[in-house]
Design a protein that fits this description.
Blueprint: H1 2-10, H2 12-32, H3 38-57, H4 62-77, H5 80-108, H6 115-139, H7 152-167, H8 180-192, H9 199-225, H10 235-266, H11 290-294, H12 299-305, H13 308-317, H14 326-338, H15 342-365, H16 371-398, H17 401-409, H18 414-432
Helix pairs in contact: 2-10, 3-7, 4-5, 4-6, 4-7, 5-6, 9-10, 10-16, 14-15, 15-16, 15-18, 16-17
Amino acid sequence: MGSISWLWEQHRFLMYQCFLFPFAFLFYFLSKQGYLSLTHRYLFVSVGGCVLAVVTMGIYSLLLFTSTLVFILLVLSVDPSCVHIWAFGIQMLWQTFWHLLIQYREYYLHEPVSIRLFLAVSSLMLLTQRITSVSMDLQEKRIMLTCNTSSRRQTCVMILPLISYTLSFTTLLGGPLCSYSRFVLLMEGIGLSSPPSPLAVVFLKLIQVLLLQWARWCLIYFLKRNMYDPVNSGVLYGILWTWCLALVFRIQYYSHWRISEGLNNAVGFGFWEYSLADSSELSGLSDGDFWTTESSSRMSEYARQWNFTTALWLRRLVYIRCKHFPLFMCFGFSLWWHGLHVGHFVGFFTWAATVKADYRIHKHLWPEFSLTWRKIYIFLGWINTQMIVTCIAIAVEFRNMSGLRLLWGTYVGLFPFANIILLFILLKLERRC
């Protein structure tokens, strides 16, 4: 029982996801065999999401139910061209209220915050993605959700897929963002042209999660056995220790994304018949691969690969809609969406500035290098990217000044600082020219 308790405390989120796999496979089997009609499929995933929310979040599941109810009322009562403004404003205010309440209880009242509340707010952030994705689709007329509201049956037919999309048990606790139109096509297509059996794919992704968690355990063991001492430890050791600590945080994200992808695959999602990727892998829904992301030698490339579907959502929601300073506005909104902690301010604005610096540095240096120097440039760029990502991860995960003090004490914070200084130098040179 001791090992089970340890697993539960250390990997609560992953365990919740693992418990959902039997229900996901059951949904796939019943849909494939024709036992579930389309209406029953929508009911299965939405009721499953409601039950999951109550079991994992308790009373705080009302945060999600309130958001969903308000959004449904907006869809039914507001003109489609105006839904996005209302949905975005109300949802972000509701989410921000709970983020600030957590900070107030943590920093001013010094009270422990319930893990259920943290989980509810995390799910609320994902719900914001889905709600704003639908509202943008309505605004851009990519989907039509109009009906004769005097007909109760027709209204139910319209809102049931919407409720299923927002509260689906496959994406409630995590997972790649799927558009509403894609979700509807997937739900309709499972019974008509079933995707390939997901058993092998899900098993492979669960093995990958186990390997990632094993690597994370090894890093934690190393960090605990070789604690960093600001007085006696050397500069290189401090940099290596901090890099390993940041890698521990990032591996946890990769594990969550992988198991969420596997859960979506288990119900038959992620299979695009016309995808250029190998369709047998059900690889249409993914938030990023460890090797692909971590091998990035440029900050701009890393930013595009990290949490891939969220990056696309931020690009659509903020970047392409802002006429002035779109990059900084995009990362500024990401800061707001994540919770407005002190570490978030430093982390996300450092990220924005170093991505901007990467564009300028690459533009000036890459054409000047020979083939040999380009290889050296790529290697040094990878080290630079890893150090900057280390700073961002430490600042964001610690959330308070302790993370910033660690970065300053180990000199890792000099890497993004040097990039930002070089950015200003290049901008001044451009103005002179």
